[in-house]
Design a protein that fits this description.
Helix content is about 50%, strand content about 10%. With about 150 residues, the chain is mostly helical. The structure holds zinc ion (2 copies). One zinc ion binds next to loops.
Length: about 150
């Protein structure tokens, strides 16, 4: 997730604009964030070493969803897919096709769209496909209503 989007997302919680959103367990929230960052770093380390990075990439996307879900807001039931790839202007066609798509959070948790099976994104300096660093952002119900009207 680009930094400005992440900031906008977390600002809503900080400023109490997210209705009855609560973080049930700040320690758990911290553990989820740490696992997400660890997966991200493990993916980079594996790609740099020429090893298989599929497992940390899958973990990364799973932790992203768990992080959003952990906010436990009744008004946060959807995610938007943010397509992004490191070191290039555009992600691969498979990831680009998902850009901006809205999905029910519960569906994504059960059956994640990321990484797309035919992703051909690569890490800089590597030719191995599937290095998908696209991400999810939480979409509040009021944003969804504005989007659809
Ligand atoms: Zn891709
Ligand atoms: Zn991707």
């Amino acid at each position: 997730m680009p930094l400005w989007r992440r900031r906008r997302f977390f600002d809503r919680f900080k400023h109490g604009k997210a209705g009855n959103s609560t973080v049930a367990d700040p320690k758990r929230a911290h553990a989820i964030r740490k696992s997400k960052l660890d997966s991200h770093m493990a993916a980079w380390a594996a790609a740099t070493a020429g090893d298989c990075f599929l497992e940390p990439i899958l973990d990364l996307h799973s932790w992203e969803l768990q992080e959003i879900r952990h906010w436990q807001s009744a008004e946060l039931q959807h995610v938007r897919i943010i397509a992004w790839t490191p070191g290039r202007a555009h992600p691969c066609p498979a990831c680009t096709a998902l850009a901006g798509q809205l999905r029910p959070l519960a569906d994504e948790v059960r059956n994640p769209s990321l990484p797309p099976v035919n992703c051909t994104c690569t890490a800089p300096g590597s030719t191995a496909p599937g290095f998908c660093l696209c991400s999810y952002e939480g979409v509040f119900d009021d944003e969804l209503a504005a989007h659809r009207s």
